[in-house]
Amino acid sequence: MKVFTALILVFTAYIVVGPKVQAASIKDVKPSHWAYKPIQKYVDNGYATLEEGCFYPNKAITRGEMAQMLVNTLRLPLDATVDLQAKDLTQEHPNFKALHKLIELGVFNNSEYIHPDNTLTRAQMAKVIALAFHVEVDNKNKTSFKDYNKSYWAKPYIESLADEKIITGKTATQYAPNDNVTKAHFVALASR
User: Fold this and answer.
1) DSSP state letter for 180
2) How far is CA 113 from CA 67, 102, 106, 109, in A?
3) 87 φ, ψ to 5°?
4) Taking the model in full, what pTM does it have?
């Protein structure tokens, strides 16, 4: 718990005072948007890029896009040397280096298929955030949701993050593990 708290403090301090690029004007995210502040920080710090001035906050984020934002956020070097088993990830993929690095770190499994262009689900997001930020994951959680069973693969990740108030359900009893994660949701969550 102490290590997790220390990591969050360091991460938060880095976002707040880290190196900044020129403040960008985001055409499709107004100051009234619920995730305006974390999105603006991500763009200003170079963790996320704009497409023709737009962030597309409601667009479902792909596994590759998420990997790129995550390695940018953590300022990870992109020099990975693990031999990839993935048949669906080539060096030409725009997020190849980020995915390769996260596979090397164990955030993604080094398996036959990575599905870099598939959208990220809420269950997958919980696992990625827990592993990338070294959140202690166990089965002794106070929080539970009713829309997955006790043996669900992502249960310990979801409930451990919910106990730490990093994630919430869609309702008090429903997590919606198979729903897609939007770019705005991922940035807001990673900022926590």
Assistant:
1) B
2) 15, 14, 15, 9
3) -85, -15
4) 0.82
